[in-house]
């Protein structure tokens, strides 16, 4: 991982994402952070640049040369995807204010981006606690993993911080809890790709998968939640990534979308 991009609009959520990203790169001096601001019509670019430089200067322990600024016009999603190709972006770190539990149908800028962008995204909730990364919970359904390449980002993050990865599978029917043939194949894949960072796997019963995940996070020490959208699974069902969208809206824990 060498290049990280952060959409930045001076909001509390984007400032929190920048704080997180600066902590994220402390162990790897070769990583560059690109701070991207999409300006509105009539904005003074020189003034925007001064504001961004002032914010960057506040990170005393981080070389300013590691944070590059980008100011441009355009729509957020196509602009980020264009920069992804041009700058070889490995990860987007994006802040979010989220949405209330009863606001599933109200998309946010972050939830729309996560659904439309085909690249790894680390979503940082506005109220996420101070940076810590020792335990990652990967939520995985019953489907067989088809695209193993998405796991390289998870391995990279685990290696960087020595983080353990716990696998969580929520099943709606108690009778299906346990290892199926696909579960065993996934287990072998995860153990191989995650090396010694793989810890263990838990199966829980809950008719509401999101609720099951959230309840698990409340009772376990988790610093990051990770999910593989169904585009990387063998069946390809639910390709709209409904669970990913809902978790992006509601999570209080940093969420790594392995796309």
From TrEMBL:
Gene3D superfamilies on file: 3.40.50.12370
Top-rank lineage group of the source organism: Bacteria
Record SUPFAM superfamilies: Adenine nucleotide alpha hydrolases-like
Annotated signal sequence range: none
UspA domain ranges (all copies): 1-125
Family: Belongs to the universal stress protein A family.
The protein, known as: Universal stress protein
């Amino acid at each position: 991982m060498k290049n990280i991009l952060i959409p930045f609009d001076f909001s509390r959520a984007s400032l929190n994402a920048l704080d997180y990203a600066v902590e994220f790169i402390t162990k790897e001096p070769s990583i560059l952070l690109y701070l991207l601001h999409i300006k509105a019509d009539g904005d003074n670019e020189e003034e925007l640049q001064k504001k961004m430089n002032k914010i960057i200067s506040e990170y005393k322990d981080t070389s300013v040369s590691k944070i590059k600024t980008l100011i441009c016009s355009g729509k957020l999603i196509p602009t980020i995807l264009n920069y992804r190709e041009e700058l070889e972006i490995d990860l987007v770190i994006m802040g979010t204010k989220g949405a209330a539990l009863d606001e599933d149908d109200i998309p946010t800028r972050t939830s729309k981006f996560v659904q439309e962008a085909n690249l790894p995204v680390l979503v940082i909730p506005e109220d996420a606690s101070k940076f810590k990364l020792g335990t990652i919970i990967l939520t995985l359904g019953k489907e067989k993993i088809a695209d193993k390449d998405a796991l390289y980002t998870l391995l990279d993050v685990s290696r960087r911080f020595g983080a353990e990865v716990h696998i969580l599978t929520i099943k709606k029917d108690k009778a299906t809890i346990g290892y199926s043939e696909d579960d065993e194949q996934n287990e072998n894949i995860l153990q191989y790709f995650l090396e010694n960072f793989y810890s263990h796997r838990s199966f829980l019963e809950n008719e509401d998968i999101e609720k099951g995940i959230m309840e698990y996070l409340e009772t376990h020490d988790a610093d990051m939640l990770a999910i593989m959208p169904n585009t990387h699974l063998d069946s390809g069902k639910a390709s709209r990534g409904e669970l990913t969208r809902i978790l992006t809206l509601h999570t209080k824990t940093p969420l790594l979308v392995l796309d």
